[in-house]
Design goal:
two-stranded antiparallel sheet, globular, alpha+beta, 25% strand, 79 residues
Length: 79
Amino acid sequence: MALTFFGKDPNSTDGECPTVWFDDTAQEFVIQGWKADEALQAKCLDVGPIPESEAVVRVPARMAHMIMEAVDAAERAHA
């Protein structure tokens, strides 16, 4: 697995914050984020169940450029 790091939340004070990676072997985005609270999970359940093997996580919009960089890398790898 070749995991490429794209960044952490720049507003984190402790360095243990939302993070964005791209796994070019599996062709998957890897996102570390805050666990969704029960209210958000309930809203997400409106469109279908959340399997036990999955989770709803939150990342701040200020990390959009990191996510876009990871998307660009995925598109380049797939082209």
